[in-house]
Write a structure and sequence with these properties.
This protein is of the alpha+beta class. It has helices spanning about 10-20, 20-45, 45-70, 75-85, 90-120, 125-155, 155-185, 205-210, 220-245, 255-285, 290-315, 320-325, 325-350, 380-385, 395-410, 450-460, 465-470, 495-510, 515-520, 550-565, 565-570, 570-580, 615-630, 655-670; strands at about 360-365, 425-435, 440-450, 480-485, 525-535, 540-545, 585-590, 595-600, 640-645, 650-655. It has 24 helices and 10 strands. Helix 2 packs antiparallel against helix 3 (about 45-70), helix 6 packs across helix 7 and helix 18 (about 495-510) packs antiparallel against helix 20.
Length: about 675
């Protein structure tokens, strides 16, 4: 008879479970503590790679701990022993789950300590850092819940792992692909506004296992969603554990229906590939072709996986015959997905507004200042991203966007994002909300550069947009300001120099309220600052371009760059030869008023004692280098500025008129 005194929790069971996990827990703790240090040393400041490794390790660690502590559910003798203990099933389940959770939390703490050893940024426990770690904790609970359900339904390690994968990943995978099918058919639909459960970033676990940095899209809503779903899964897992028969241990599943569901869902995932081709062929209406052999092979592979899974799970060939009727279920699921996609796309296509129906519109891009991603905060995309709440009632703009949207619906293939169309017009993706009869319709429209400029002209005049552009963070609210190595003149610009440039930029920007267009549209720059918000205000980082349209800041940059590289320029000829022993790239450009006037790429063979077909050009280049070495000076923004790239080194300097003559001569000879 069960001991009712231990109905919900037993400290002795809890301690016993902790002891069972100590070896595997210590090993995992060592790995998780060392990994951020090891990977951090390899990749330096590129923190996303190490964070990504941590995410995957949390997934692995939780799975190992949960499967190990409940391993008795896969062996009949062990199952009988544990179920005969003088504790209720609920007590056994809760005690063991809490023991597993304790070890996982301990491992997480050690992992964070490993980061503290290497990452200076973790002294800033700001918004993103807290949310990131809460997201990982929510994922742990979600994984524990998914595995607990799988253990309540299966009786072997193989089917346990398979069922866990199905519970945790297959529903989200199906949703993601079905929504993707709809978007491919209706690229003008704004998928950022689909219902909450269908959004890509709502399930943190699916973000973690992605192949990019999408885990940075962890949102507060996503964290809450994962916590709630994980708790629900744990409760369901507890109920199933209570009702589970000891005889299930050693068998593929508690009943044949469960086995069939797992088999069908795994097969359905493979069917998504040929199904996509069928859907696009029949519903796209863009003269697509279909490869019948390709479709047959993929569906054949899906059927093979269907029967192979059954064989591995049951280890009995005769049971393959019983699984044959399940193929019909797979076929019906394919048909159901086709019908759902067709219905959704037809519903989206119904919205075809007339200009007179539209009350107002709003425009924005999916580059959000409040999102965890990078963006130039002095760029036209930034202006669009902060203009979401500006209601545009200008008749010309409404007419332009409405007509463009209707054309896009008719022939979306002619307005592809980030590609040139047949008329050599470049199109940019912009999110547009149409207000018709008091209801907002969220759509995406492809605009030409001229159309986008018309919208920006209007936005530059709106006070709320101007205020947001001018409202950039104070230095005290930023973790770090540094030059971007890949885009900045390599003149040993320090972080202190970068702060000076940022302060100058912020001060000068306040006086340009009436001329923001010149700053936002200026794409000629030699320096780009990285504004690192990680852990602050929810942002990851932003960029600022140091442009000539802000003369005071641009002059300060030229002064800093000139001073920092003066010693290198004093021995220019020697330094060039030393650099070119390792890297043979060499080019010279000239800027006037901050704009590139001309530039040339020069074969580095010119600079060595190698026969070169144009001896005149060779001598001219050498003469230019000698002249630059002796006449170089710190550039002023009113002068011509030379930009010399030597391997990975880039120099910026002014020189005398002789250099200008030699440069012009080189340009002519090089042509």
């Amino acid at each position: 008879m069960k001991n009712n005194r231990n109905k919900f929790f037993s400290i002795s069971l809890y301690k016993d479970a902790l002891k069972q996990l100590r070896i595997i827990g210590i090993v995992l703790a060592v790995v998780m503590g060392y990994m951020p240090i090891a990977t951090g040393m390899m990749v330096g400041d590129h923190l996303f790679f190490t964070d990504k490794i941590d995410c995957i390790l949390y997934l692995f660690t939780t799975s190992v701990v949960m499967i190990y502590i409940f391993r008795f559910t896969t062996k009949r003798k062990s199952s009988d022993v544990f179920y005969s203990l003088p504790y209720t099933r609920t007590c056994l389940y809760i005690s063991y789950v809490l023991a597993a959770f304790t070890w996982i939390i301990a491992i997480m703490v050690i992992n964070v300590m490993g980061r503290l050893v290497y990452y200076k940024r973790y002294k800033y426990m700001g918004h993103f850092t807290i949310r990131y770690n809460l997201g990982m904790l929510a994922c742990v609970i979600l994984i524990m819940g998914g595995i607990s359900i799988a253990q309540g339904l299966t009786g072997t390690i193989f089917t346990n792992i398979a069922m866990s994968g199905v519970i945790l990943f297959v529903p989200r995978l199906l949703i993601r692909y079905i929504v993707g099918f709809i978007y491919d058919l209706c690229p003008y639909a704004n998928m950022n506004y689909v219902k909450l459960p269908f959004r890509d970033n709502i399930n943190i676990l699916s973000l973690i296992v992605g192949f990019d940095d999408s885990y940075l899209d962890i949102t507060n809503t996503g964290v809450i969603y994962a916590f709630v779903l994980g708790i629900i899964y744990l409760i369901i897992g507890g109920i199933l554990f209570n009702r589970r028969k000891s005889e299930t241990a050693g068998h593929a599943a508690s009943n044949k229906w469960i086995q069939g569901v797992v088999r069908t869902l795994i097969t359905l995932v493979i069917c998504l590939i040929p199904l996509y081709n069928i859907i696009m062929y029949y519903l796209d209406y863009n003269d697509r072709t279909i490869d019948i052999l390709y479709i047959v092979i993929l569906y054949g592979l899906a059927i093979l996986v269907y029967f192979l899974f059954e064989l591995l799970a049951t280890r009995k060939v005769r049971k393959l015959l019983r699984a044959i009727p399940g193929i019909l279920v797979v076929i019906l699921c394919n048909v159901a997905i086709f019908i759902c996609v067709y219905g959704a796309t037809e519903n989206i296509k119904k919205f075809r507004p007339d200009v007179d129906e539209v009350e107002y519109i709003t425009v924005s891009t999916d580059f959000g200042y409040d999102r965890d991603m990078s963006i130039y905060i002095n760029d036209k995309d930034y202006v669009l991203s902060i203009s979401k709440n500006v209601k545009i009632k200008e008749e010309n703009i409404i007419q332009m966007l409405t007509n463009q949207y209707n054309k896009y619906v008719d022939k979306p293939s002619q307005y592809q994002y980030s590609v040139w169309n047949s008329s050599y017009i470049y199109y940019n993706k912009v999110d547009v909300d149409f207000c018709v009869d008091g209801k907002l319709y969220h759509r995406t429209v492809q605009l030409s550069d001229m159309m986008e400029e018309s919208i920006l002209e209007y936005l530059y005049k709106q006070p709320e947009v101007i205020d947001k552009v001018l409202d950039i963070p104070e230095v005290k609210d930023i973790i770090r300001i540094k030059p971007e190595e890949n885009y900045t003149i390599n003149a040993n610009i320090s972080d202190e120099d970068a702060v000076l440039l940022y302060e100058s930029y912020k001060k000068e920007l306040q006086g340009m309220r009436a001329d923001l267009k010149s700053v936002m549209g200026d794409n000629d720059y030699l320096c780009k600052l990285v504004i690192d918000y990680r852990g602050k205000k929810g942002n990851t980082w932003s960029y600022i371009k140091i442009v000539s349209s802000m003369p005071e800041t641009y002059k300060l940059f030229l002064s800093i760059a000139g001073k920092n590289q003066e010693q290198y320029l004093d021995n220019l000829e020697i330094n060039i030869n030393n650099s070119l022993q390792l890297d043979i790239t060499f080019s010279i450009g000239v800027l006037s008023d901050g704009k590139f006037e001309d530039d040339i790429y020069i074969d580095s063979d010119i600079l060595f004692n190698i026969e070169y077909p144009d001896e005149q050009l060779k001598e001219c280049v050498k003469e230019f280098i000698k002249e630059a070495e002796t006449s170089h000076k710190i550039p002023d923004n009113n002068e011509k500025v030379y930009v010399m790239s030597i391997g990975e080194k880039t120099l910026v300097f002014s020189a005398d008129e002789k250099c200008a003559e030699l440069f012009n001569k080189m340009v002519k000879l090089n042509r």
